[in-house]
TrEMBL record:
This is Phospholipid/glycerol acyltransferase. GO terms for molecular function: 1-acylglycerol-3-phosphate O-acyltransferase activity. SMART domains: PlsC. The keyword Lipid metabolism applies. Keywords: Acyltransferase, Lipid biosynthesis, Lipid metabolism, Transferase. Pfam families: Acyltransferase. Residues 72-184 form the Phospholipid/glycerol acyltransferase domain. Pathway: Lipid metabolism. GO terms for biological process: phosphatidic acid biosynthetic process. It comes from the Bacteria.
Length: 256
């Protein structure tokens, strides 16, 4: 394992909820068709507003609490690939993503057109180069979105925020805005939308489309600034953990 490649204990068979109240088959088919249409449009003309259309097509309601910043680093807890859709569609973030995403069908094409910053998690030697690229983008006034846990969790727990990306904020003097994400079904916290372990995007999307009452709440927390990446990472992690009501015992992964 290297610094970019943490792991979480979450797996689909043990952590992920199955849909409770299921949408009727005609509605599911309509959702699949709508999702396919949005993805096709995204290949031709990727736009942040299409991210919003994608979640509406899948039957997911999004509630944002607070006002998104125009510049700086936005960080949040990582539950699902849907987190990225929220960051792009509702905040207008330019995302930081692993290099594998570049090769994904459909999503990879859209990611390149949306000016995603790719990181090579398997090469620690390229870590300073990645940090410099993010810092430069922040100095240029971009709004960069990242998930510092480095992996997804099921939503019932979260890992420590790893400090590397916070170095870019420290170097550029950019503010860091923590975002607490929570998925619910019929008002109760749920892992039905989680994308963990050996799960696939198709399996995750199938659960979301089959479920009724799926909602994601994104709570923007007060921004933080500083010159110490570890202090920034720890403070942002505590803010998100407190907002989501996680206890200390839920956090089992520590940053090096």
């Amino acid at each position: 394992m290297n610094g970019w490649f943490p792991s979480a204990p979450c797996q689909p068979h043990s952590c992920v909820d199955e849909p409770g109240r299921r949408a009727a088959w005609p509605r599911r088919l309509l959702r699949w068709g709508a999702v396919a249409a949005v993805l096709a449009a995204g290949i031709l003309v990727p736009r942040p507003r299409l991210a919003r259309a994608l979640l509406r097509a899948a039957g997911v309601r999004v509630v944002v609490r607070g006002k998104a910043p125009r510049t700086g680093l936005v960080v949040g807890n990582h539950v699902s690939w849907l987190d990225v859709v929220v960051f792009v569609g509702w905040f207008g973030c330019r995302m930081l993503a692993k290099t594998e995403v570049r090769r994904w069908p459909v999503i990879g094409v859209a990611a390149r057109r949306l000016r995603v910053l790719f990181i090579d998690r398997d090469s620690l030697r390229r870590l300073p180069e990645t940090v410099d690229s993010v810092a430069e983008a922040l100095r240029d006034g971009d709004l960069i979105g990242a998930f510092p846990e480095g992996t997804t969790w099921c939503g019932r727990a979260m890992g420590r925020f790893r400090p590397a990306v916070f170095q870019a904020a420290a170097d550029s003097g950019a503010p860091v805005t923590p975002v607490a994400l929570e998925f619910t079904v019929d008002g109760r916290r749920s892992s039905v939308a989680a994308f963990v372990g050996q799960d696939t995007v198709v399996a995750s999307l199938s659960r979301v489309i089959a479920a009724r009452g799926v909602r994601v709440e994104a709570q923007l927390l007060p921004p933080r600034t500083g010159s110490d990446r570890r202090v920034l990472a720890s403070a942002a992690h505590e803010d998100v953990s407190r907002a989501r009501g996680y206890g200390v015992g839920h956090v089992v992964v520590r940053a090096p």
